[in-house]
Amino acid sequence: MDRIVPLVFAFTYLGMALGRVPGLKIDRSGIALLGLVVLLASRRVSETEAGAAIDMPTLLLLFALMIVSAQFKAAGVYDVLAARIATAKGSYPRLLWLTILVAGGLSTVLANDIVVFAMTPIVAEGIRARGLDPRPALLGLAGAANAGSAMTIIGNPQNILIGQVGGLDFWRFLAACGVPGLLSLGIVYLSVRWAWSRRLSATPTEIIPPAVPPRADRWQTAKGLVAVAALLALFATPLPREIGALVIAATLLMSRRLASRFMIGTVDWHLLLLFACLFVITQAFAATGLATDAMRWLASLGLLPERLSLMAPLMLVASNTIGNVPATMLILSVWPAPPMGAMYGLAVLSTLAGNFLLVGSLANIIVAERAAIAGVRLTFADFARAGMPMTLASLAVAMAWLWAGGWMEW
Fold it and tell me: Among 9, 55, 108, 130, which one has the highest count of C-beta atoms within 10 angstroms of its own C-beta?
């Protein structure tokens, strides 16, 4: 048996778990690209096969949604909301709750990675200017972005992938995953408040508003809101989801005031590259037959993750080792036809499980990296301190909801 493909597959996902190659400054996207290059150079995968393995509808939908989110960034909406949170009157717990509501709400229809990318430095600097420790607010921001994104099929990359692969309806997905995601926002607040009670007891100092406060461009904001409304309307039509999203994105790019170079520049090309490379690597591994044999063996033992008692621990471990996006891609590549209920469970459980540790989701990593640029250090222990209780509690709520609604058996 050819060992190159299984070895490339194993080392790629080991790199996903480590997040880097020791001694080198190479991240997950770079590791996936190296794996793809090895497969191409060794002729285990041809250029034609690589192109066929990439799920273009998923990449196109993800790209289009990033353009829609970039519209709000360009309009200054994220800046204004983050600044208003930081300068709001009231106690630190109130500021935390405002952060969670805004981040969670935005992440339901906009890419959560872009939401936290834009909001993190402003929240960090604004909270620190009030004489407060920014870490609880930033943890609330990350947790809420993940929880809010779990509610919809377009909230985060793994949900987009699951929705495309399973052909899931937007509104039925919302019915299945919306309630646990919404309740998890409250769990995020309670968990951060409990874990960081001493820091949150500090009294915010009054802050002098800047001479020129950030302002949102009303016209560009209105365009963004119309684009989101049109996007949701198109999701209710027979038009393929990715085509509808591309139509909206292309319309936004036809602007007299916003350069398309800026809009396209805000796209997370590293994430799109990661997706493309992993599509090829996982497809090459699936073609070896090893994945099929493993699934048959698990099926014979009754261990397919069709039940909550198996799916939840699997996603908790997988999301916090290789990350919830690579974990979702891996599961879908080796499990060719999961039932619809399991698809809902995979989406909401993988997303909520990403709050457990710093490495659980891309949103967590982005918050930590952007906070560091703003001079705030968020450690692995900081995330775990609030992330562990919020994740366990939100997973319990999600499991109870999926079981009570008949989507998955226990």
Answer: 9
